[in-house]
Amino acid sequence: MPRKSDKYSVVGKRQPRLDGPLKATGRSQFTDDVVLPGMLHGKIVRSAIPSGKILNIDTSRAEKLPGVKAVITHKDTDGLMVGADQLLLRDDSVNYFGDEIAAVAAVDEDTAIEAAELITVEYEPMSPLLSVEEAAVEGARVIHNHLDSNQADDVTMNFGDAEKAFAESDHIRVDEYTINPSHSAFSEQHIVLADYSLPDKLTIWTPIQSSVIIQMNMAFKFNLPVSKVRIMNLNTGGAFCGRGSDKAHHYIAALLSRRTGRPVKIRCTADEEFLVFRGGGTYNFKFKTGAKKDGTLKAIGAELLLDCGAYMDAQFIVLRFIGFSLQMLYKLDASNFTGRLVYTNNKPYFFHHGTGMVAMRFALGSQLDLMAQDLGIDPVELRLKNAVDKNFTTPSKIHYASCGLKECIRKASRKSGWKRKHGKLPPYRGIGIGCGVIRSGGKGMMDHDTSAATINIEEDGKVSLFLGIPDMGQGSHTAMAIITAEILGITPDDINVIAGDTDLAPLDMGAMAQRGTFTTGNAVKNASLNTRKQIAKTAAAKLGVKQSSLVFRDKKIYSKDAPDKTITFEDTVYDTLHSQEGRYIMGSGFYNPPVEAVMSGTYEGNTSLAYSFGAQIAEVEVDPETGIVTLLKMTVAHDVGCAINPLAVEGQLDGQVFSGMGQSMYEECLMENGQVLNPSLLDYKLPRSFEMPEVEHIIVETIDPYGPFGAKEVGQGPIQSTTQAIANAVSNAIGYPIKELPITPERVLNALRQKNKK
Amino acid sequence: MPRKSDKYSVVGKRQPRLDGPLKATGRSQFTDDVVLPGMLHGKIVRSAIPSGKILNIDTSRAEKLPGVKAVITHKDTDGLMVGADQLLLRDDSVNYFGDEIAAVAAVDEDTAIEAAELITVEYEPMSPLLSVEEAAVEGARVIHNHLDSNQADDVTMNFGDAEKAFAESDHIRVDEYTINPSHSAFSEQHIVLADYSLPDKLTIWTPIQSSVIIQMNMAFKFNLPVSKVRIMNLNTGGAFCGRGSDKAHHYIAALLSRRTGRPVKIRCTADEEFLVFRGGGTYNFKFKTGAKKDGTLKAIGAELLLDCGAYMDAQFIVLRFIGFSLQMLYKLDASNFTGRLVYTNNKPYFFHHGTGMVAMRFALGSQLDLMAQDLGIDPVELRLKNAVDKNFTTPSKIHYASCGLKECIRKASRKSGWKRKHGKLPPYRGIGIGCGVIRSGGKGMMDHDTSAATINIEEDGKVSLFLGIPDMGQGSHTAMAIITAEILGITPDDINVIAGDTDLAPLDMGAMAQRGTFTTGNAVKNASLNTRKQIAKTAAAKLGVKQSSLVFRDKKIYSKDAPDKTITFEDTVYDTLHSQEGRYIMGSGFYNPPVEAVMSGTYEGNTSLAYSFGAQIAEVEVDPETGIVTLLKMTVAHDVGCAINPLAVEGQLDGQVFSGMGQSMYEECLMENGQVLNPSLLDYKLPRSFEMPEVEHIIVETIDPYGPFGAKEVGQGPIQSTTQAIANAVSNAIGYPIKELPITPERVLNALRQKNKK
Fold this sequence. Notes:
2 copies of one chain form a homodimer. By secondary structure, chain A is of the alpha+beta class. In chain A, the strands form 7 sheets. Chain A has a 7-stranded mixed β-sheet, sandwiched between helices. In chain A, helix 10 crosses helix 18 and helix 17 packs across helix 18 (about 720-735). The interface between A and B is large, with 44 and 44 residues.
């Protein structure tokens, strides 16, 4: 079948990643590859208990160790806070196993480790609060003195008249769901190299999703102008929401550098990675859904109790995203949400891949299958009946200018053989569906969400494209090169993407909220159009035609009225520079979605210009003896608007199936007394490559009116559907509802026991 | 006296260099500071005789040395040529002491040196040709087989009817002048780091005056697209015409890197620096000047025999510049010039500071004093009588849109007390004048001479200014920051200049031909105006005034009609970004002088839009016993158009007085049998700081109509006047004409002996 993007010469073609050869041959530079003259190595001393008072910190032995250049504790930090509730280094108490207490810088890493071990901390342990239930109870010990209780945040978000909608429902279900803690498990561990040797300039090398946000935060905390903080984000080995912004190690490295006048590198170990850095916390959901007899959904209500861990970081965002998204997928009269974030003495949580949406969609998607069962409606039909459409406006006034949800459901169901299989598979075989929706960027809590791009063209026609967005592995730099190549009628390998240095890059809010292709893509499109105009001037004069009639394609330029008379792109660039005028071609463009920042107000309004939709169908087999689930096949349909690079879209779909199956079936931080019991990639179980199922990709292109070439996102939309589909397939296979993630063999066997008990 | 630039808030103010603190504290990165993973060290094996056949090269012992990764000789170079007449590595003969024969790369520098020493070369020596006289003679051995003689180049350049003009002269003088070889003597020795480990990308770190020219040449020679050659020019420790472009060590490092798959650094030693790298050669001038009785100059003729050394490099430029410049300083009817460049077995020469103009101006300026003496006219009066003026057009059709020559002569003569002193000083005290003219960039041999600049503005109002021009110490980056600051109404320290990397920088032909302030300055001005327009949009809306009425000054923006109502620059930038529109400010601009490239044709026409002029008066004392000359005072007047940064202008004047006194009185490569006898900064005599005279600076501002804020150059114009002034002052002091540079004590004593002989 012809694809909608067939009319383009570069967009929509399968383009291998431009950074592939360098990555594959080990030549890409990551932060750990950077070695500066005089560089020191830092090490952080962390709490060895989950909760307690600090009676004494003795750094004297460490200070005497030859090769140690600095030892810092709380008194050396000027009271610096990381986030609203977290001291950079603890003063008189510790709140979790791994809390930062002191740090050293030494001439090499071994000396730094030895010095850190020579620092002795005397504690008076306190009984830790290790669950939201314990911590939320009236009269529980309050972890943070500046508060009255352990409630870190609470949000109520109501759209429409839920009371009325539930009253009008024929059937209401209430179910509870639990999602256990997980971890981002990057291939590149957390690392920072800081050079703050001069007092008026701080340079930070670190893998990060938004160079601009860490830049702004560090500038604010160190009282520097933003432009005096330079972020070098060379390459990032995975992020998955886990590298949103600044964390304690960034500040500690900077302070050690300031103190020693030398650059300081801190490399986190696998232990630190799991003990300190943040995946998702424990989600306890109570879901309530009301529907008419015919399956028409009326309202969804959800209560969430979320384990915050010891510090909040940006987790308030999770509550809001979830509250917001309840009413985005199906046509409802109303939704209501109450979310509470509760401090515990667990490690501080953050996001995992999916920003809490995986948890919520698992709960809602699972409950919808139960609703379908109750009403005797096929789960696919129930979803199709209620799915949102193009031009639909949700109760919170979100508006869909393009929407491929129904097309995704229909195509996934057809390709997966749903009708043939659902209810007709042999015992312990199951099939399940999941659906999702996510926005393509937008002004979340910021008053702008700008991306910008600049372009220089060399006299040989090669293009330098300057970007502020990092590429953490998703291939966004290649996608941006494709957009420029299409507009200038050249090929992506004519383009050199320059990014990763805030001193050089034009502004970009970063790779988050699925804004890359849509927002940065629009900026790149604008910059490319601005550039094309400059070349068109020469070309039109040379061809003797109007600029408006020019076509740029296949490295040639011609008038659409006389396509036989062509000039090459390269010659035109050369002639522009080598003309009497001597004009050097430089283009620029920016994009900022013209929507309101709604997340901090009433939450009503259109938070983005574009939303993408997806549906996935999982087929599984369960071994009733061992409880082991085998994921046989995933049929994955995603409405990306326009597939700028179908190869990368498929890669993103595969990656999210992989990550989603991890969160569904494998990944769990096993917590005991505030400690992670499985803090390594050996013990923390990720799916292995041979466990990857067959994946059928269905790319749905709805050509969004606001997206560059109609493109939306394939950032973390697809993963929303994966967990639901797998959980529903397992429930379908065993004939008993799964209500807890991950679906480990033990939980499968428990479910089978529960089923047999009934 | 108020200066013409007083109306500006930044331009014309004394601005310390922005890179000063980093340079002064040793934090600036130079090529030798760059250490890459796996980097090797290279060493070049050079000829140990000035001329001969190579019978055998034995590299076997070097190849066996542990740590040696590559050994290359001619057969590994694919016949690569450096310039038209020079093989990268010699095949069957050597042409000078130092000629490149082989090269090694090893794991460290000591091993590389040892390996180079293990390579044995068997020669059959030939009798070297060590002077132009020997080499130019009919029947002399021809050094380069592809030619019929040792004549490397010859140029005849006639403007006006010289025969007629000489016939109409009342008095004609013919004198001969000799200028001996000198050396550029940088503080940073020649160095290169090449990474050619992947076949499709070559990165070169090296100090250079034009990143673009070395990039183009290396791309051409290695058959790579220009954009696949990246030049990193971090900082440059002096250049003085000696780092114009690519030299053999650049290619050798690249080939060694290609061969080993690892980066290779080659650091030249002090010996190599003097034996191989290039200052000026030996100039033999025959000057003929005709004048009327009243001192009106009619014509100047000059014959030049110039020692080329073993290879030509870009010395053909010297001949042309000299031929061209004969008729630029005084109003003449005609000029004629014949120049011959002759190969010898001396080291290949190049330029020294002043590009041959110092030599020519010394000869002409010295002869003018003799003419003045013959006609009984005061030397200052003779120059004033003949000096060119604003709107004058020379016989070669050069046109002066601004001209401060007479103002320079008058002011220098007044400030120096010329009238009081000339002819009235005690014995062995002398006073002398020198004058000069030079162009501010222009299309020399290129069909464009473009500079470009781009600008990003951070939300805190700090500006990133992207430039392609290097700053070799002359302060051009600070000058460019001043231009941007003036236009945007901010201060230079609000500006971060980003340069030194061809992947990032907009095009710039480089720091040569005094084009920086004029050409790059105009590009920066255009980029800044383009940027200001973007900010003006916000400011005008906020103030409710017309954009055209806005004034940007002192970090504020206001309407000239209502100067009390101001908004800050920073707030306006912030508001622009944080508006609903979310606009990020990016500016760009370029400049290419709209003149014809005349150097390769008939040489007629206006080669540049702007020319600067200068006059200097030297006062000296000669010790008749020792011949030692003491330079007591230099009065230095220079027409810079507009002093963008008077502090830097004074620095440039001081620097050129220093360099000019070096060339006049101290610096000489003592050649014997093709070897430099004084190859180190210990033996090659540069002036010492305590020998620096008192310098009186007179900045003349003629506000050129085409220059940015009226600015022209202060690049290497001033040095033209220095040598003449000193030589004339010494002649004046001893009463006998100096006709050879440098004016060593021995030559002074010789002159005194000659005088007494008469």
